[in-house]
Amino acid sequence: MIIDASGLDYKRINEKLAASVGDATISGCIGQRFIAAGLGERNISIDGIPGNALGAYLNGAHIKVNGNAQDAVGDTMNDGEIAVYGDIGDAVGYAMRGGAIYIKGNSGYRVGVHMKEYKDKKPAIVVGGRTGSFLGEYQAGGIILVLGLNDDSKPIVGNFPGTGMHGGKLILRGNADGIKFPSQTNKRTASDEDMAQITPLIKRYCLLFGADESKLLNDSYTVVVPDTKNPYKQMYVAN
Amino acid sequence: MKIEGQVRIPSGCAIAAAVSRDGERFSGERIIRSMPCMHDRSNGLGGGFAAYGIYPEYKEQYAFHIFFDNDNARSECESLLSKSFEIVRDEFIPIRKIPEIKDVPIIRRYFVSPFKSVLSRLQLDEDEYVVRTVMDINTNLSGAYVFSSGKNMGAFKAVGYPEDVGRFYRLEEYQGYMWTAHGRYPTNTPGWWGGAHPFGLLDYTIVHNGEISSYDANRRCIEMYGYKCSLQTDTEVITYIADYLLRRKGLTLGELASVIAAPFWSTIDSKEPKVKAELTYLRKTFPSLLITGPFSIVLGFNGGLMALNDRLKLRSMVVAEKDDMVYIASEEAAIRAMESAAGRIYYPAGGEPVIVKVKEGRY
Questions:
Q1: Structural domain includes residue B170
Q2: Which of A70, A87, A159 has the CB atom closest to B333's CB atom?
Q3: For chain A, what percentages of helix, strand and coil (3-state, to nearest 5) are there?
Q4: What is the complex's ipTM, to 2 decimals?
């Protein structure tokens, strides 16, 4: 099933998706929002530039974007996978609660803002390049992995990573020297247990985008987690 | 009809810009094309464009674009202008009759030069005299509103969706080396003709997506220097801040960015001593001109532009290039709509100014 998006608004595209069965390709996308919102298990391939909130509330579908994507991809996503074969805008995985998002290139600000987990629902975001500021802002669960494979010599992450973080893991390739994290978090070199957790993510990234798997698996990683001994106290109320 | 709160309107203003660094002129058709794919970012209560290099035959005169509510306001304003300006040409701005644009005021333009004798008597340069005249008309002359006042450039704006506003003003008939555009979704203030973007003073224009949390602090500060915020919306204050800091205080564009989107003190502390001293000086000298709250803006001026996000980057902005062209928009899709083959896509960081200059002598 091929859906030609030119001249269609987001509502018509999603109606056509809902009316079809099996795999679908959407061609000629030019900024239509909410594509595949809430969609269950399907394979969707997208050409062109999908608009904001691609795969919002996604519920099991696999989405492949053959280029760049815009803001708020996977907003409140519940299950499934989004793979972006390019760069991505701000707030990817906003309040995400399940499934995985893989970005081949760089990402904007607020990756995984307010991401959370519950029991077996453990979302993951893997960024191949670098990220903007406020990485993992208010993160409450899940894993955010940044590989820093960008070749533009810019730092792997902008300012203020992990601000307000109180759950989950923020993992950066390398030793994260010179990067300032909040005093309410702890930084450590990845343990065997951490590596076991991110190995499937790295393997999946390499399978999707073709990076050097053995090198990435042998590299050292830095893990940032909330410091439970130093919680956020008296920021808003006397507690 | 459903009222606000019962229906969700997915929105947030849209901005876009296209500039030729070689000063090659192109029609307004291209910038209009950027707007339909961001249609949902506006709600039909304002759209507008700024065009640079469109009046080469009158490049020595200030081009005043003026809305009049009625003929009385028009004749009063024209008599005021004729006392201190030579009016080289005046005419109705050409418009197209289309159903999407309603309640059209009288829209005229005047190519004017202040009389030398007036400037000598008042001991003012012509830019300053023009600024004072614009402030005087917009504040004191009921029913008249100067919405564009630069040389060899012009703003065009209306209540409506931007793509309709572009057709209404027949922008495909103009040739400019730089265009900016705005689709409006007013959140706190009325949607009226004067409140649409761009906001212009001299050749400075601002298109803005966002909301200024510090508006009243900024307004009180800038009004001490003779500017009057009279247009019932926050964005105009950015235009006046740009005029004050660039023209009157002589700051560079980068310094302007470091004032209105000043880095946090913790970020300033992490800089090398010289940069730290400069940033500290700017923050301490102009604390009331720090603009807080979400914004992405494009500041246009004769010969270039500066695009800037707030320091927290609470609004989106994408930049791309193709040959001598630079494109900027709220969404990459809008850039693709203007130039499908644009490359070098990048996303400026919060507070990181993107400055594009047209080659000297080419505009």
A1: yes
A2: A70
A3: 15, 30, 60
A4: 0.93
